[in-house]
Amino acid sequence: MASHPLNFHAVVVGGGLVGKTAALALAQSGLRTALLAPPAAGLPAGAQFDSRIYALSSSSQTLLERLRVWQALDRSRLGPVFDMRVFGDAHAELHFSAFQASVPQLAWIVESMMIEQSLDAALHFQPSLSWFESRAQGLTIDDDAAHVALASGEMLQTDLVVGADGAHSWVRAKMGAKVDRRDYRQTGVVANFKAEKAPGEAAYQWFRDSEIIALLPMPNDHVSLVWSARTEHADKLLALDPAQLASEVEHATQNMLGALDCVTPAQGFPLALQTVDKLIAPRVALVGDAAHLIHPLAGQGMNLGLRDVAALADVITNKESFRNLGNPILLRCYERARREDIQKLMVATDGLQRLFSVPGTLARAVRNTGMALVSAQPLVKRWLVSAALG
């Protein structure tokens, strides 16, 4: 344990996009901020695209613009989504249009590595930020401060610890939060493809055999696959060579975009619904996957985490001058601000996943009839788009 602790207003534990965004937001507010994160891993040798992509909503774009990260992204590699076509498993179809919803776009498709590189560049220019690559191994809380012990032997003293360290959060375990996790028994299979037919700035999604397949538009006629497959099926997909995987995707998507050429290795990640009983504890707040996990069928997981960051930053920016960052009233304001948004999105995504997992002709007829009814209601569709945009 270091004899002279290093003092900060906030310590952010976790080096994903949400953690780095949180650290940047706090540092740009003039707060002495520590980020505990390993260096970013680069793309595999020869890779042209990152297999990990996100569909960022307007709320996420607004936050990244405020932090001057969005402006640094390579515009030629951003994929706007102006239309989305959703196909049921019995001929029903939903069409969402940015034009009909009176919004600039439904989402932006952005590679994870692009955002991370822009965040890293911005973080390195923050004089009030200190970046530690050592991991945290001890956390104690007292009336005056939180104390974070690092594996390197350094001790950090802070008003607030922000847990942004993912689904298996160390910070969450230390604060004693209870976790309710339900495994969907599905794996998200992701890869990028060159398409014979241009996606035309449209996203496509199919509900098929209790699985969900999405093709998301990227620049230069490329698309990104997100296939939420049963785990045993996903294992088979991940074992295919690139040409075989492309053939499987072509068949599953009814050759909507013609022949596909796989340009990145496929990757898989387990899917689960995860809730926690509290987002805060004395001098601790959770954001991102440490606070919640949802099904990726609506592409809203990253947006939900970035809305956590925006809410926490707003609460801190607007706090009374006599309150420090670990003040219980301040942290309760953050938790209240996030609970409804998190709960609504969890119920919506989990409900859809359950609905399309029910076997049988009757269940299929009910859900496809529901899709047809929604498709015929422009006001309902506009409300759904507004909710997704945050």
TrEMBL record:
Q: Is-annotated flag, keyword Oxidoreductase? A: yes
Assigned keywords, A-Z: FAD, Flavoprotein, Monooxygenase, Oxidoreductase
Cofactor needs: FAD
Q: Where does the sequence pass through the membrane?
A: none
Q: Where is the FAD-binding domain?
A: 10-346
Q: Which SUPFAM superfamilies match?
A: FAD/NAD(P)-binding domain
Similarity section: Belongs to the UbiH/COQ6 family.
Record-given protein name = 2-octaprenyl-3-methyl-6-methoxy-1,4-benzoquinol hydroxylase
